[in-house]
UniProtKB/TrEMBL annotation:
Residues 29-107 form the Inhibitor I9 domain. PROSITE patterns: SUBTILASE, SUBTILASE_SER. Keywords: Hydrolase, Protease, Serine protease, Signal. Residues 662-758 form the Subtilisin-like protease fibronectin type-III domain. Residues 1-21 form the signal peptide. It comes from Selaginella moellendorffii (Spikemoss). SUPFAM superfamilies: Subtilisin-like (SSF52743). Residues 136-590 form the Peptidase S8/S53 domain. It comes from the Eukaryota. This is Subtilisin-like protease.
Amino acid sequence: MELPAMVLFIVLLLSSHLGAASVSDRKLYVVYTGRRASHEDIHAAHKHNHATLANVLGSSEAVQDSMIYSYKHGMRGFAAFLTNEQADAIAKKDGVLSVISNKLHKVHTTQSWSFLAGMPAQTWTGTEEWYSKKAQNVIIGMLDSGIWPESKSFHDDGMEPVPKRWRGACVPGEKFTRDDCNKKIIGARFYFKGINAEAPLNASGANFTLSARDDDGHGTHTASTAAGRVVLRASFPGNIASGTARGGAPLARLAIYKVCWNDFCSDADILAAIDDAIADGVDIISMSLGPNPPQSDFFSDTISIGSFHAMRHGIFVSCSAGNSGVPGSAANVAPWIATVGASSIDRDLASNVVLGNNMSIKGEAANPDSMAAPWSRLVPASSIPAPGVPSVNASFCQNNTLDASKVKGNIILCLQPSALDSRPLKSLVIKQLGGVGMILVDEIAKDIAESYFLPATNVGAKEGAVIATYLNQTSSPVATILPTKTVRNFKPAPAVAVFSSRGPNSVTPEILKPDITAPGVSILAAWSPVATKAVGGRSVDFNIVSGTSMSCPHITGVAANLIAKFPRWSPAAIKSAIMTTASTLDNTGAAINNQFFQTVSGPFDFGAGHVRPNLSLRPGLVYDTGFHDYVSFLCSIGSLKQLHNITHDDTPCPSAPIAPHNLNYPSIAVTLQRQRKTVVYRTVTNVGTPQSLYKATVKAPSGVVVNVVPECLSFEELHEKKSFTVEFSAQASSNGSFAFGSLTWSDGRHDVTSPIAVLTS
């Protein structure tokens, strides 16, 4: 019996590429050989890559066995399996700029858009701007875990034909045909050769589909957040977070590049996808993924390098900042990337605990299930360890740590030992042992709604102490866990999420990161119904997820609307408009707080502030930056050879490269020496009112004197540029800590604000 064509295709892929990773003496390397010249045919670029590798390996047959990608669109180079000796030999060849060992990155894993419309000084204008048909000309490239094309969020009813400039493809694969693309999903590709070199898919034990179809849910969630169509009556099971789901740019087109498998994404695959996205003609690249901290320098980080080439082709790149949550942990910090942190919204998902004494305890979860019985016995996990297991280990409710006979029929009180320990897995352990509920004491995640395998909820340390007191004072303690109640108009919001990675920038502190924050806590968006593991075993069409992965596509959607309105603006101008119109106030009018610490947030937490989409469409002034500015910046922090690792050509360094703090960026970060003046240079472009006068207002960082020269900028026409300087003088040492302030240019209609961070040595 003959195999169907698609099955045969998959078998061949598995045998040719999935088995390749078993070669023990070879590793996967990414080799850069230069930028493809505009006049160079892509076939000539591929031939050059082939010849470079053949020169070391000795034959075309060896090249076929070694090379898995040939980069030939936005850049020139290849990914290949090499021994250490072969990699060293290639690195010494003329024309080879760099040889980098392949690395893995992780994904950084609605009401949010309505909330953004209600931010202070934000005016909702409905379809007039947000749903403009001009957005149908904008193409968003999503580099993620694929897409579930059947989702209601991706229908193409009423959409115009695909833009003629689109040059991409809808690549068929397992359970995915060309018919799965439409006028909404206009392209789909998938990349697995790189991930398979590091973590063979057929040895992972997880289900995977060799196509752009999303097994994980993450890519479907981010794509619908950025550009999902309007879906009425969307909700999580139990009518949780119900309402109208929509993306930021519902009419924008989606091009899908599946680069992530089982939460991991390979350098080689990411770079291949960026290379294709440039050639396909996308306007935006959105990546909710990145390296673990600390990030490597820009000259050896493939996301930085790939996004540089995207920027050079006029493509806006937005990336998640990461979920490490500690100072200096922000990822994707190159200045040509929009780096996005996460914050909460004005919706709370309360799943409260009621104790036997009728005391109600605040809990947080996406919990659609009612308890089977009105009351169940409440048992601390530490009191029921499995034989030989210490009580403290049992308290964490991990596999093989609890006495099954004492779990059955009870609600178990568990503790969270670290942020890395899986919360849903604890609920699965308890369910498999016959438990009926779980209360998880987790101070860090007390405000983050997880979904579990049985009725369960998160409580904070204070609430946990109340429960512990009840347990100690009651001979037969009982409790019940209530299904989630959606609380709207929650205040205060936003707050910076506890997990959101913070600044300062670990590569170049003079470039303030993150750039901006957007909703990333308990976000409802489309989901893959086969991705049940992350939803407590349920098959759902919409899921509630938290992470900077969720905040990044919010900025992607905002950028899509800006590009629709201003198609000729540079990526830097788009980012400037988003940053300089952000808010640093919550919905009570107070300063935005940090979610966990309940302290006032600052630029290293939220960058320029919380995004205000409609105001970003009217920024007044923008800080524009282009290719040659970034080249000068790179020359100031690295060598000419390092520069060429990124540019992939013979671009020269200027005779006097700009200092990093003088890159024309919408924020200012500078290190001062006491009693010495430091001058920062900036240039703004008028995109507001032709005849306008802007005046400067400064909130000086503590211990620093700030002077702006000139104090007023007068414009006579649109697109006119004006330069100014900001002079800093430190009056006292900051004792190793940054001090923060801001600079605002205002003409009475537009407030153009830049955060300031100063370190005095």
